[in-house]
Specification:
4-stranded antiparallel β-sheet; alpha+beta; globular; single chain; 2 helices; 28% strand
Length: 69
């Protein structure tokens, strides 16, 4: 499962394996968006922990997307 989360302005949080969604963007809103991919059996606990963190503005499962041909 992939979890997408956004850090609050000025906040820092060490989340192993998390990567920025827009690594080259200088816009503060886009630069604060991250995603982490975890095994399903770990994802629920990680999501709860992120939601409880005062450094995190929001955390949610990332929507699955498919391209249609």
């Amino acid at each position: 499962m992939r979890i997408q989360f956004k850090l609050r302005e000025g906040a820092t949080l060490d989340v192993p394996g998390a990567v920025r969604l827009f690594p080259d963007d200088t816009d503060p809103e886009l630069a604060s968006l991250y995603v982490i991919e975890l095994p399903d059996d770990e994802a629920a606990d990680a999501l709860d922990e992120l939601k409880r963190s005062s450094a995190v503005e929001f955390a949610e499962p990332q929507a699955e997307r498919w391209l249609r041909g």
